[in-house]
Design goal:
The protein is an alpha/beta fold. 37% of the residues lie in helices and 13% in strands. Helix 4 runs parallel beside helix 5 and helix 5 runs parallel beside helix 6. One of its GO terms (biological process) is signal transduction.
Length: 341
């Protein structure tokens, strides 16, 4: 069985999406652009809620605008401090949680995107931006980047989880939903039974995008899934030990049916964490040294109705995160083989 898993991995990772100048293959270079299409036939009819799917935390935050106003997700005290130009530079170090663009994340195998959005103070139009302390790119630009990838990879499915909204009234929500419709059109999957969502079903319907909308506004549109269908418990800790304990506990409490499940394998800085590593930023202070231990936990997991489903991480390119999560699906195939023995 181990030989089979290695062969599958070699097949899936046979190309490099964007070769780097040195010619070496790094975690961010390995191409998992078609990993769903490459899964064995037996897994085509397994509910997506039972598969292992890699995701990114604050997926859009690979770029934030130091020149824009501080976002409405921040306190008044932070907004006052940010009048000092140096403060925004330091904020950027703690707001950025990814290195890869949407396209690069998709090519690396990421299929779940954690999205937080906001209008921008002073804007006269209804434009919506990604937000994490500072404003990111326009949501429309991100959606178009994702749609372009999906058009080129028609068997890949993505989860777009709009879970935080700031400074948005009904007009802003209508504008955002219209943008989503315009970007994905027939690729949008209507909300229905979670258990009916398999690769085969979606391929037959030519649907590739599941939109989760954590706001009552979802009731007005058939293609918006309610946020309760994709719970994402948050550990809110700087301790790897406490994080792993939390992940194990929430997995044991996972509902066996009726929803997807996000395991947020992330550490969250406290005020004193930021104070101690002010210049170093999130990546150098908290993530870089702890991510290998978190990945070790991922390697021990198994997908299934009571196992892991979607797993998210900061800086998904620092380790072989996406491939490690994808390979957990081989365990489902091994179970099938053992059952036949």
């Amino acid at each position: 069985m181990l030989a089979v898993r290695k062969a599958r991995r070699k097949l899936r990772m046979g190309t490099i999406c964007s070769p780097n100048p040195s010619g070496t293959k790094t975690a961010s270079d390995v191409c998992n652009a078609d990993w769903m299409a490459s899964l064995p036939p037996h897994l085509h009819n397994v509910p997506l809620s039972n598969l292992a799917i890699p995701g990114s935390h604050d997926s859009f935050s690979y770029w934030v605008d130091e020149k824009s106003p501080v976002g409405p997700d921040q306190t008044q005290a932070i907004k006052r401090l940010a009048r000092i130009s140096l403060v925004k530079k330091l904020m950027k170090k703690w707001s950025v949680t990814q290195n890869l663009t949407f396209r690069e994340q998709l090519e690396a195998g990421i299929r779940y995107f954690d999205l937080r959005v906001s209008s921008k103070p002073g804007d006269t139009d209804q434009e919506i931006y990604f937000i994490h302390g500072l404003f990111g790119i326009k949501v429309w630009d991100g959606l178009m980047e994702i749609d372009s990838f999906l058009t080129q990879h028609p068997k890949e499915i993505v989860f777009l989880d709009f879970n935080h909204f700031y400074a948005m009234d009904e007009a802003h929500h209508k504008c955002l939903v219209l943008r989503i419709q315009e970007a994905f059109e027939n690729k949008l999957c209507p909300a229905c039974s979670v258990e009916s969502m398999t690769l085969q079903t979606l391929w037959e319907k030519k649907c590739q995008v599941l939109i989760f909308y954590h706001c009552p506004f979802y009731k007005q549109y058939s293609f918006l899934w309610p946020g309760k269908k994709i719970p994402a418990p948050w550990a809110n800790t700087t301790s790897v030990r406490k994080l792993i304990l939390f992940l194990e506990t929430t997995l044991s409490e996972r509902a066996p049916q009726g929803s997807f499940h996000v395991s947020q394998a992330i550490l969250t800085p406290r005020v004193n964490t930021i104070a101690r590593g002010l210049v170093g930023g999130l990546k150098n202070t908290l993530v870089h040294r702890n991510l290998p231990a978190i990945l070790d936990w991922v390697k021990t997991q198994k997908p299934g109705a009571m196992g892991v489903n979607i797993i998210t991480s900061d800086f998904v390119d620092l380790v072989d995160f996406a491939t490690t999560v994808i390979e957990l699906n081989d365990l489902l195939q091994e179970d099938r083989a053992l059952a036949k023995c």
